[in-house]
Amino acid sequence: GTGCDIIRRISEMTNSDQRQFIRFVAFDTDANELRELRHAVSGLFSVQTSQRMTVGQALDTNPVAMNEWFPKNPQLYNKPLTEGAGQIRAISRLAFDSCVREGRISGLHQAIDELQRLNSDDIEQAMRVVIVTTLVGGTGSGILLPVSMYIRNYLETHCGKKPIIRGFCLLPDVFFKDPSKSEQEKEDLKANAYATLRELNAF
Fold this sequence. Notes:
Layout: H1 2-13, H2 16-19, E1 25-28, H3 31-40, E2 45-48, H4 55-60, H5 63-69, H6 89-101, H7 106-118, E3 128-134, H8 139-159, E4 164-170, H9 183-202
Parallel strand pairs: 1-2, 3-4
């Protein structure tokens, strides 16, 4: 939910003139986080990557994930996707894959298309995309790379322009001051961040 919280804060800092040229798009597997954010941020575009099915049901429709990259862990199969990724990056990626294949990503398309119409007279202007996430949870760190690649491909294919994509990614130490976090939880946060950074480095 940290990415949603950052969107909320930035939207409060922008004035109406600035908002004319900015679109906020929130991605989350947690339906409750998105519902609260839609009440707080006017004009928000959102993409709920999850739907009312379990991890096992999503895997049944995605043999590539089942056979090639999703961890073989039957304990995860009964987890409802709408409850969020729960610190498990693979669940977020699985939910995003299903979201794209089923065409439930229109919120992102609408935001891009609105900005494209505003900038249609300035053919030299590259669209600037800023992706904000933590690297420690399940949702953001699990879809950071797929979302970045999807946005780049969509802009190049539909708008004929290469976007400027930047990422602001929060590292684990931001969350270490929380007294409720156990040492094991802190280790889990570091493991997620390390895995995401390794993937970024590989690309």
